[in-house]
Every structure is written in structure tokens, then in C-alpha cells.
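[job 4471] stage=fold_predict status=RUNNING
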Amino acid sequence: MHALKKNRPLRRIVLASAATVSGMVLLLALKPHESPGIAASASAPAPSSSASAAPGGSGGSSSAGSRTATGDTVQTRWGPVQVRITVKDGKLTEVTAVTYPAENPRDQEINSYAVPQLRREALAAQSADIDTVSGATYTSDGYRQSLQSALDSAGF
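[job 4471] inference complete, writing C-alpha cells
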């Protein structure tokens, strides 16, 4: 008689349960995506120090009231995020994401809409008090923390 015949339903239940548990253990053993070091930057390489404030600007005499500061590199679940700001005459005039997760197509897709939206919100709010972009929670949190660090460095 076969081991899985109808007269042994308990054995079928035990075997099915064991197979289900084994499958779940294998699924849960998968590791989430983690960046090996610093993620690729879409605009420029990250500076060697994690926070810097550079008085002056790009070198012209009209940039006397302009300051640039780079925020701390914030490690998120999907990779580092770092922001650079420019403050001119007491107003936040530019926000640039120096480093953000862009190592795989999904990161690139998410951040292609999230980073510009975060920039617009930061310029509109003139602070780090900005909303989280739906679908880019980790990048938004890292962006906000790095932005606050840059604003503090610039004395804004």
C-alpha cells in the first residue's frame, strides 16, 4: 500500500506542513539588497569628508554672500544618501543630491522621480521639514537627515 493513500491522512498533513515550513525557511533566508560600500552617484563622486562647509562660492566677486555646504553621508537600507546645498543672501537657492542609491534599475527608477521631488520640496520649504516621497521612504529619510546636516553646517 502506498504511504500517501487516503487511509493515512495524518501523514499527508505532516508531509505538507514540513514542505511548507521548509519553503518558508528558504524564502526568509534570502538577504535584502545591500550596497557593497558607497553607491554610485548620478551627478558627482562624494567628497572624502562626510561634512564640509565652504565659504564663498564658485569664485566670482558676486558670490560673496553665497555659502555651500555638504551634509553628512546617511546610510540607508538601500545605500548612502548625501546632499549639498547653496545658501545665498540667507536663502536656500540650490539643493543637489551628491550620492543616492542608483546601483540597480529599481533604485534608478525610484530615485529618478524621488530626488527631484525632494529637491523641489526643500527649496519650497527652505528647511529640512519636507514630506516623504511615497515609494522612496528610505531615500527620503536619508535625504532629510543629510539636508538638515548641511543646513546646520551652513548656519542656516
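[job 4471] summary: The domain at 52-153 is CATH 3.90.1010 (Sufe protein. Chain: A).
[job 4471] exit 0
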